[in-house]
Each structure stands twice: as structure tokens, then as C-alpha cells.
Design brief:
It is a single chain. The chain is an alpha/beta fold. A five-stranded mixed sheet has the order 1-3-2-4-5, with helices on both faces. Strand 4 and strand 5 form a beta hairpin. Helix 1 packs antiparallel against helix 2 and helix 6 packs across helix 7. About 4% of the residues have low confidence.
Length: 223
Amino acid sequence: MEQIVQQAMEQNLLRVAKQLEDQLDSELHKLDNLQDDDVERIRQRRIMELKQQQEKTKEWVAKGHGEYKEIHEEKEFFKEMKGEERMICHFYRDNWPCKVMDKHIALLCRQHLETKFVKINAEKSPYLTDKLKIWMLPTLALIKSEKVIDYVVIDYVVGFDDLGGKDDFSTEQLAERLARVDVIKDDGAAAAAAKRQQQQRSTIRSGIYTRGEDDEDSDFGDD
């Protein structure tokens, strides 16, 4: 099992590294003919920034970024959080609303390598749910490192209230909500797309997940 996980991480790292290499080559090609001294300094600075970004991305991938990992024990939560600048933890149970949230998070984790995404079964995590005041599911705990050793839950996304109150919200709407508190980086595209999606009200159910008879609508604690 560990070998499979390691192979998946290596494949993900190679894929991201290739993307960054292509991006760097493209930037170099665009700047290749610049001769002016001032422009050359800009060129060198940009190349350095891209290389630093490449190294940072490799570091993120090596730490499990780009994956949507499930935590099976409460102590793993603190292990996963250690050394992270940003982490989003989905407290879930086996019901329909949480499955909807899962589909969006699975997409976002691949788009935002700067943030670690994890999930944990709230019903099997009484200490964490009490400590973090989790009372409704799904809940996203949005965590940032404030100091070297201190981590703070800066905000929560509780249910779908911040996302239009229905389960047909778009991934872009969720991204805009998360970027608002800087738990993911906002490139400006998410907000624009969220506005368009809010008008169109396209549903995530179409082509992604079919609701079964056993799926629940219940909140945390319901039978």
C-alpha cells in the first residue's frame, strides 16, 4: 500500500514538474530576444521567481499537496497540519451533502497546490469535533499557520449556507469563498466564474455523481 502511495506521489510530482518546466521554457522563449539592461534584470528576476515557484511546488507535492487525503485517526490530523501554511479539513459523514462537498474538494486540491486538503469522519473523531466546535456536516475547517508553532482555524464553511444554500453550487463558488480568507490563492478567475455560475445555476450532479436511495440529507448527529 505504501509503495502504491509513493508511486502516486512520484507520478504527481513528475506531472507538476513537467508543467512548470514547460511554463519556464515558455517564459524563456518570450524573453530570449530582450537586450536592454533594465529589461534583462526584469528577465533574470522573473526566471528566478519561476525557479523558486518550481522548487516550492515540488516541496508541496512531496508533502502530499494535490491529493485529497482521508485521515483515519485523530492524531493524524496534527501530523498532517505540522509544517503547513494552509490546510482545509472536511469533517464529514456518509451522507449526500458531504458527498457533494467531496466532489468539489477533489477538484480544488489539484488546482491549488499551495494548500493541503484532508478529510476526516466526524462521527469517529469526538475529540476534534468537540475541540473545533463542529456541529453540522459538512463543515470545512479553514486552518492557517499564524506563527512557527501555532495554527489557527481562521474560519469555517458550515453546510451550504455560504454557497447559496443549495447543493447545486459550483466549484468556482466554493473557491471564491475559500480565497476570501486566503486559505487558497485567488487568481481572480474564481470570483468571475462564480458570478457566472451563480447566474447559470448549473448542477454538480450532472455527470459526476448519481444520488442513491441510501444517501442521507441529515446533519451531524441525526440517525
